[in-house]
Amino acid sequence: NIVMPQEVKDIIKQIEAAGFEAFAVGGCVRDCILGRTPQDWDITTSALPSQIKEIFARTIDTGIQHGTVTVMIGKTGYEITTYRIDGEYKDCRHPENVEFSSDLKDDLKRRDFTINAMAYNDSTGLVDEFDGINDLNKGIIRCVGDAKERFTEDALRMMRAIRFSAQLGFDIEENTYNAISKLSPSISHVSMERIQVELVKTLLSDNPGYVMRFYETGLFKYVLPDIGRVLGGRYSRNALTMLKFSKKQPVFRYAALLNTLEPENVRKTLRELKLDNYTVEHVTKLVANSKVTIEENEPALREAVHQYGRELIQMMFEHEAAIIATKEEITGIKLAGKKKHLIVLRAMYDEITKRGDCICIKDLDITGNDLMEYGLKGPEIGKTLNELLGVVIENPRLNDKATLIALIEHLN
Ligand code: ATP
Ligand code: MG
């Protein structure tokens, strides 16, 4: 049941025609068997990088020292990697050296999990040396070989095990799980950027609540202790429930996870994760504003849009929806009133937006220049514009130059 795209078939056939072996390998084989669409197709081969470069017209040296060449077919790149034996791991992350091999089995042996260690091509069919199919059918993440050894070689694999379990809805096989619990302190050898990638993939999966496994195995004791405290604390259920109800985007999932922390600690944690400024600021603001209530009338909403900005206010609605759903589930009490309030506010926001109501100074029908001509100077101008904005937010019909000029007299 593995159907390779024509381009992948062609690449493999060309390598075979030159006298070498080539297989689709890893994630693409796993995803095909599961009936999921692979993100990309990785190819493993007995040919050396230099030999791959002789076979194909357009190639890019992606990681020649690790044996990887990217072959360009049209606008798509395919990573082709020579069968590899990873040398000794020195820093719990990277092999000291890699050795090329002519045996597919060597290459499959170095891979992390049985479900990621299968290869396929049309001439040989499926190559499954480690019973990956069996684990796929059982829904299990299991290390290739001895779990403790594999996690000692590369500590990132501990995060990957949990991430794959969340993405696929799989259990972690007992030895593999126990090895993570035992070796969790070595996670401190992994860079925060890599930890963040695995964390966000977990949060954005269909099972974001599996993030709990980062706490249960002890991983988030040695890194990210604040997240550990959320997951191990008395609001843990709150965070896990809210994750389930939150929109599948990093900002909302991080905000759901961290909603019970103090805003300063939210910012600190997100910075620790080396997240981009956009995510740090928006998540922190969502948490900080999560108790804000906006009155159900247009002037109050326009004032709020002015204060928070269009993008954030819509995010606040989204965040609030998840908070309400979470409270309903945890308390078992229907919050019909809160839900209706949010629906009304969202409809009102659409109305205000469609009408183009004035919500900021540049929407005013009068400019600083107009006020200068009128005779105002320096700080008076900004102050007057703000006052006029206040009036117009209250009553949009007054947003007309002549009316505003007349109003200035009145304000002064
Ligand atoms: P995804 O769908 O997330 O891309 P994937 O299985 O393709 O999943 P990649 O990180 O793209 O994962 O890696 C491709 C393959 O390389 C994996 O399937 C696995 O066989 C191998 N691999 C990747 N990272 C490691 C690692 N740290 N240790 C051992 N093998 C690894
Ligand atoms: Mg991949």
UniProtKB/TrEMBL annotation:
Key word Transcription regulation present: no
Family: Belongs to the tRNA nucleotidyltransferase/poly(A) polymerase family.
Keyword RNA-binding in annotation: yes
Pfam families, A to Z: PolyA_pol, PolyA_pol_RNAbd, tRNA_NucTran2_2
Record domain tRNA nucleotidyltransferase/poly(A) polymerase RNA and SrmB- binding: where: 169-227
Keywords associated with the record: Magnesium, Metal-binding, Nucleotide-binding, Nucleotidyltransferase, RNA-binding, Transferase, tRNA processing
Gene Ontology terms for molecular function: CCA tRNA nucleotidyltransferase activity
Upper classification of the organism: Bacteria, Bacillati, Bacillota, Clostridia, Lachnospirales
Enzyme Commission identifier(s): 2.7.7.72
The protein's name: CCA tRNA nucleotidyltransferase
Residue ranges of every copy of the Poly A polymerase head domain listed in the record: 23-142
PANTHER family per the UniProt record, alphabetical: CCA TRNA NUCLEOTIDYLTRANSFERASE 1, MITOCHONDRIAL
Cofactor field: Mg(2+)
Span of domain CCA-adding enzyme C-terminal: 255-407
Species for this entry: Lachnospira hominis
